[in-house]
Amino acid sequence: MRARAILLCAVFAGAGLAQQDPVDLLSQIRHRVIAGISRLPRYMCTETVDRSSFRPDEVAGKRARRSCPDVLDTGGKSPLKLHLFSTDRLRLDVAIADDSEMYSWVHEDQFGDRDLGDLVRQGATSTGEFSSYVRAIFETNAASFSFKGESQWNGRRVWQYSFRVPLSRSGYTVSNKTLDRLTGYSGSFSADAETLDLLKLEIQTDPLPPELGMCQVATMLDYTQVRMNSVDFLLPSEANMRIAEPDGGISHNRSQFSGCHEFLGESKLIFDDRATSEAPVSAAPAQTIHLSPGLRVAVALAQNVDPALAAAGDPVAGKLTRTIKDSPSNLVIPKGAELKGRILELRSSYAGSVSVLEFGLKWESVALNGAYHPLDLLVKSTIPGSAKLPMISPRAMWPDIDATFRPESPGVGFFAFPNVPPKYKIPVGFEAEWVTVNASPELSAK
To answer: Which residue has the higher pLDDT, 419 or 397?
Structure first.
């Protein structure tokens, strides 16, 4: 290994590069990466994920059925003409502690033992961007490395290495939410030639087994310095994941990380000191309310929802448009009472010139007597005309907006907006009717 390193050094020195031993350089880079990881505090970041999927043109797909070997022979790029099939966005908080990643919806301010798949039930997701990849590659002896030389990246002089982790040493798992399979992987990284800081890491799996329904997963991570408590730490700023599929389709996730800060959480990782943009209801003693099942509840959005900016995970505000009167308990919640909720899906699907917007919404609590109280609802229908979509004909003034629920997503109403125009925003006043459900014997105020 030493003889080979000297030979490589001599070859590159002939091109005018500084005569440095690639083996020693690698040792220094690994030491710097590991030292940086080991001194990281417990911290959390907000992760915004833009997801896009592309599908082959139907005619082309019928004319030439593809397979994973066909796709991988083209470097993971589809040999077919693709069209945009769907787009959506997620916004999550991720906490990193004790070498593990925990997820919650943004501003939910508490982390439990939920897996990311418990929050995001559809589409591709990934974990491990913060520490798992770099620990596996730089901290263990699983990877073998090859020196690729010096190059330029974003105006900086960098050292480049490639690496390989065989299946026998790998801990990389790929799942289709039904099956899990371990895979080997390979890739490359770039480090700043002056500071030896990690700048870019690229990873691609070995060809995946057919039962997963994926050919290959490739991930690209960009790193930057983030200041926390007057100390700079190297953290990922962006991650791009690309999944090549057997039919030639491609799924792409672009994750951006922001607002990273240290936390001093307890074992339950519940945070009470984080500011939110919402004006809180004035403090009041905790109360318990009982709502009978089957009460009709009409709620309208109290804000626009712009698919160009909003994301699944974002908080959302609403207002009652009718008074709730619960005769058995003599409880009255007046018209205009404020509700807190959360967007749980915001997805656009495309078929030619037709676009359908899918909106998942859950109302979580209602304001009464100065406090917010949990609210469990089941969606029934939308109020015609409240979405202000373009009229489809003089006789049928407003298109139907389907309202459905899914057993695996209790309390969430899913609304399908047909033929939405470009830059459409779900408007203030979009209204739907819900019904109370008997989710628990009693509901305690938050």
So the answer is: 419
**Same structural domain for residues 114 and 234?**
yes
Kindly report, residue by residue over 200-211, the tens digit of the pLDDT.
Answer: 999 999 999 999
* Residues 185 and 227 placed together within one structural domain of the fold: yes
Cα distance between residue 146 and residue 138, in whole Å: 13
- Both tokens assigned to 324: 């709730």
For the segment 219-260, what is each residue's pLDDT rounded down to a tens digit?
Answer: 999 999 898 888 888 899 999 999 999 888 999 999 999 999
405/360 Cα distance (integer angstroms):
9
Cα–Cα distance for residue pair 12/17, rounded to 1 Å: 6
CA distance 53 to 97: 32
Does residue 66 surpass a pLDDT of 80?
A: no
Calculate Rg over the CA atoms of the chain.
26
The Cα 376–Cα 285 span in angstroms is: 21
- In-domain check, residue 122: yes
* Residue in the block written with tokens 């800081």: 197
Q: What is the structure's pLDDT at 76?
A: 56
Q: How many domains does the chain have?
A: 2
Residues 147-195 pLDDT 10s? 999 998 888 899 999 999 999 999 999 998 889 999 999 999 999 999 9
Q: Which two tokens stand for residue 342?
A: 């959360």
Cα–Cα distance measured from residue 214 to residue 247, given in angstroms and rounded to the nearest whole number: 9
284-322 in b/e burial notation, b at 16+ Cβ within 10 A? eeeeebebeeebebbbbbebebebeebbbbbbbebbbbe
159, HSE (Cβ side, Cα atoms, 13 Å): 28
- Burial class of residue 23 (count of CB atoms within 10 Å of its CB; 0-12, 13-18, 19+): middle
Does residue 358 share a domain with residue 246? no
In a domain, 234, yes or no: yes
pLDDT, position 398:
57
Q: What is d(CA 72, CA 248) in angstroms, rounded to the nearest whole number?
A: 10
Q: What is the CATH number of the domain that holds 240?
A: 2.50.20
Q: What is the mean pLDDT of the chain?
A: 83
With 90 as the cut, is the pLDDT of residue 435 above it? yes
pLDDT at 61: 43
Please give the single-letter amino acid code of residue 424.
Answer: Y
In a domain, residue 318? The reply is: yes
Distance CA 326, CA 67 (A): 60
Tens of pLDDT, residue by residue over 10-32, are: 333 333 444 679 999 999 999 99
Question: 199 and 313: one domain?
Answer: no
Q: Does 280 map to a domain?
A: no
Task: Tell me: pLDDT of 389 over 60.
Answer: yes
Which residue range forms the structural domain that includes residue 367? 288-444
